[in-house]
Q: What sequence folds into this?
């Protein structure tokens, strides 16, 4: 279904978009008032540090040479140095990205696992108590602010019931662990999951509610199509009709929103990360902005941008599986 | 001949925002094994609603509110259950939904009007036919008595099928059978066609594919709802002769629904004419064309252009069919306000009565047992005019 040409074209698009992102980020340095060095250096930077920054950015060179140096560094995955944390930006991102991915993917899985069956059930039992319960849930889920939901979940399930830790990521030997560590050491899975559960539910609730609504309305629309009657006329079990035909056709808008939301989750889970003292990309970005740690801001923006591009490419790949018209174009 | 289906006083209603619609009103007819029964009438006369009632596919707003549909299925008749049984016949209207579904495809199949929208656009044509084959294969693998109570396919196996690409609902043999079926209905290069999506088919080819899907489960009754209406005239003839051919081969019974008397003339053994939800006349095809009793049937026949005669066709029926909401239906004969032979007798609603000597010809009209009497004639269209003035 997915042709090599299609993949090559998508990859080409992706490269162009990533190039545009890194270029905009580069130009942002010069869009702020004052010299580039004052933009990049921390507020309390010493003159020696400022001189070092100027040297590293080859500020005495013309702009296009600086730009070429910058791109060259990026190609070598050199994202610069965090003067506030006194470590390389690459290292900082490498420690934070797994945490963010854990949370974003867990929230998405929560959303998919709950929202899609709920949306289908709700649509196939339109105007029954089940449907009203599902639609009420999605209304409440969409309207509940994350910080409030997070605190309530902590109060009830951590402080009250004591089922889950109050906050923070799972640690082993003082080191924060993520899904990758769990792959190598499966005995950590339980601890990892209990730490992940509440943040994932908090982050996933809005997402679940949104997807439930989308799935329901998509399935309701598809159920009225004539082909459903044809499939029923050949005696197919309702579950096959609903999940192999109706849902598949209703999924295109769902997958679109799923991709966009997952992209947002990578950079925008700041509130949930704060409530649960989660060491993710969102809180790193906000801290870096507060500290004027420009190289870190730049690194975060690039990672978030690249994340969006990758997710969109995957979404396009899924389209070709869902809708034959896409791959035939 | 043995009967396959006996509809007795079948009545169906649709609940709409404007009230209840009397879509099918006390309709009775019999379909014999191997015969072709034509159901004719203008749009909104209740033909499709009758077929959907038989198939158990009425939309959510529609319900069968009265009458019975006796279908000959000895196996199910011998199975204890809450359904009504009469000899080898089972009343479809009393069957639970699962048992009803187990009959679809394998006993009662349907072909729809618009082939373009009747296939899932995102699945290959072959896979959709293969699924119909699969249903029949799974059904014949176990006795109907257990089938009627349990799902043939559960959520667990569905999830497994979806996650493992090597598994799917359909087996390899079903796929091969689907290709054979496509070949059977005259689709060239069936193996390649089976892998294509509906958008890559023409309307006529897709209608052939839909017939393949309908006969995939080896049904005994095929409900063909306006199968040629959406097609070009030349293609129409091909589809009808394909249906004839399949019927001769397999001996299945066909209920052919159409607004076109020309279609039933060439295809059907007997015909029922529907008007405003009622079956107003039914007769063997020759009798209906030679000696129609109901003035509506006569009107329909005179509206068919005849190339053999030079006579000017009689004026077509004036006025429109009555609305089918409860408050719109007149107390007397539903056709009276358009009827050129309406009499004072028509103020009472007519019963369905046999026509003279034969019980195979009947009509819901006072003219079955008396001749038109001009002295008692109602002003033609009087009721209709009054209604319009009122508005």
A:
């Amino acid at each position: 279904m997915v042709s090599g040409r299609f993949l090559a074209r998508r990859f080409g698009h992706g490269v162009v978009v990533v190039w545009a992102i890194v270029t905009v980020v580069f130009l942002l340095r010069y869009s702020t008032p004052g010299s580039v060095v004052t933009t990049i250096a921390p507020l309390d930077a010493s003159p020696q540090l400022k001189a070092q920054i100027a040297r590293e950015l080859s500020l005495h060179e013309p702009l296009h040479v600086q730009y070429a140096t910058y791109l060259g560094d990026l190609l070598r995955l050199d994202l610069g140095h965090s003067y506030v944390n006194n470590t390389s930006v690459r290292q900082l991102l490498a420690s934070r990205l797994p945490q963010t991915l854990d949370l974003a993917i867990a929230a998405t899985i929560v959303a998919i696992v709950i929202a899609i069956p709920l949306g289908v059930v709700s649509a196939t039992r339109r105007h029954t108590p089940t449907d009203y319960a599902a639609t009420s849930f999605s209304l409440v889920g969409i309207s509940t602010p994350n910080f409030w939901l997070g605190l309530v979940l902590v109060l009830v399930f951590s402080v009250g019931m004591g089922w889950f830790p109050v906050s923070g990521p799972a640690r082993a030997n003082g080191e924060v662990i993520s899904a990758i560590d769990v792959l190598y050491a499966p005995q950590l899975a339980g601890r990892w999951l209990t730490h992940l559960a509440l943040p994932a539910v908090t982050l996933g609730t809005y997402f679940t509610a949104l997807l439930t609504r989308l799935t329901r309305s998509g399935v309701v629309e598809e159920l009225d199509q004539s082909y459903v009657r044809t499939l029923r006329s050949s005696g197919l079990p309702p579950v096959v009709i609903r999940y192999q035909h109706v849902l598949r056709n209703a999924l295109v808008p769902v997958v679109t929103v799923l991709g966009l939301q997952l992209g947002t989750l990578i950079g925008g889970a700041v509130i949930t990360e704060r409530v649960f003292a989660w060491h993710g990309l969102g809180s790193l970005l906000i801290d870096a902005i507060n500290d004027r740690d420009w190289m870190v801001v730049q690194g975060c923006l690039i990672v978030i941008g690249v994340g969006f591009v990758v997710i969109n490419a995957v979404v396009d790949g899924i389209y070709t599986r869902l809708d034959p018209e896409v791959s035939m174009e | 001949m043995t009967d396959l289906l006996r509809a007795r006083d079948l009545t169906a209603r649709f609940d709409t925002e404007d009230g209840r619609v009397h879509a099918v009103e006390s309709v009775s007819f019999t379909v014999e094994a191997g015969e072709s029964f034509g159901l004719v009438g203008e749009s909104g006369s209740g033909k499709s609603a009758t077929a959907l009632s038989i198939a158990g596919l009425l939309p959510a707003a529609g319900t069968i509110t009265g009458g019975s549909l006796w279908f000959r299925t000895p196996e199910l008749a011998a199975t204890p259950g809450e359904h009504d049984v009469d000899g080898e016949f089972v009343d479809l209207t009393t069957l639970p939904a699962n048992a009803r579904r187990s009959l679809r495809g394998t006993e009662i199949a349907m072909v729809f009007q618009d082939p373009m929208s009747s296939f899932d656009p995102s699945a290959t044509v072959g896979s959709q036919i293969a699924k119909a084959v699969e249903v029949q294969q799974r059904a014949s693998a176990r006795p109907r008595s257990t089938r009627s109570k349990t799902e043939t396919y559960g959520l667990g196996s569905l999830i497994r099928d979806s996650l493992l690409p090597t598994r799917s609902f359909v087996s390899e043999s079903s796929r091969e059978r689907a290709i054979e079926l496509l070949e059977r209905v005259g689709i060239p290069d069936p193996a390649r066609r089976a892998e294509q999506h509906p958008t890559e088919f023409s309307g006529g080819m897709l209608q052939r594919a839909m017939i393949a899907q309908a006969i995939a489960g080896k049904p005994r009754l095929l409900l063909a709802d306006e199968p040629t209406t959406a097609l070009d005239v030349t293609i129409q003839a091909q589809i009808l002769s394909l249906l004839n051919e399949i019927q001769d081969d397999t001996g299945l019974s066909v209920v052919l629904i159409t607004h076109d008397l020309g279609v039933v003339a060439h295809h059907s053994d007997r015909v029922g004419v529907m008007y405003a939800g009622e079956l107003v006349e039914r007769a063997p095809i020759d009798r209906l064309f030679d000696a129609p009793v109901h003035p509506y049937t006569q009107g329909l026949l005179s509206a068919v252009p005849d190339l053999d005669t030079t006579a000017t066709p009689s004026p077509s029926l004036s006025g429109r069919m009555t609305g089918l909401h409860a408050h719109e239906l007149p107390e007397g004969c539903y056709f009276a306000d358009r009827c050129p032979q309406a009499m004072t007798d028509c103020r009472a609603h007519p019963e369905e009565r046999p026509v003279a000597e034969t019980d195979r010809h009947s009509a819901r009209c006072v003219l079955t047992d008396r001749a038109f009497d001009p002295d008692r004639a109602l002003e033609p269209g009087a009721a209709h005019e009054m209604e319009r003035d009122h508005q």
Remarks:
- The first helix of chain B runs from residue 47 to 55.
- Chain B touches chain A through 41 residues (CB under 8 Å).
- Chain B has a mean pLDDT of 82.
